[in-house]
Amino acid sequence: MNYNVISYLIYLPVTFYITIKVGWTFYENGQHYIDTIIPDNLTLSHAVNRMLLIGYYLVNLGYVTMSLSIWQRIESIVDLFNFLSMRIAIIIIFLGILHFINMSVIWWYGNKHDNSFHPIKN
User: Is 115 helix (H, G, I), strand (E, B) or coil?
Assistant: First the structure.
């Protein structure tokens, strides 16, 4: 039995689901922040939010797919679980870091262009 094929069949749906679910949540909830930064042009703020979502999907799903090429041969079921848990954890950490960077840039941009922009304030 080829454990690599089994790992691909588990890894791809799990990571695609996590990436798409997290991206859609960021898209829906992040619109408020984008509207705050670009308050005078809601069409532009919605377009920027959609472009951020598309870029997020492209980077993350591209990384997930590209990472398949560097996998080593999996010899046992124990290796399968260890390897999958490590790869899925790397994707989750990568998503967290990317989110932190995006929010930092949005916060920086908002503070640079409008002193009244504070994402934490209601």
Answer: coil
- Asked if pLDDT for residue 17 goes beyond 90, the answer is yes
Residues 6+ apart with CB under 8 A from 91: 15, 18, 19, 60, 63, 64
How far is Cα 116 from Cα 97, in angstroms, rounded to an integer?
Answer: 26
CA of 94: how far to CAs of 8, 76, 97, 120, in Å?
A: 19, 27, 5, 24
Write out pLDDT tens, residues 73-104.
899 999 999 999 998 998 889 888 888 887 78
Residues ≥6 apart with Cβ < 8 Å to 119: 33, 36, 103, 106, 107, 110
Domain boundaries, the chain: 3-113
> Which residues, including other chains, have CB under 8 Å from residue 41's CB and lie 6 or more apart?
none
Looking at 38-121, list the stretches that DSSP marks H as alpha helix, in order from N- to C-terminal side. 42-67, 77-113
DSSP state letters, 50-71: HHHHHHHHHHHHHHHHHHGGGP
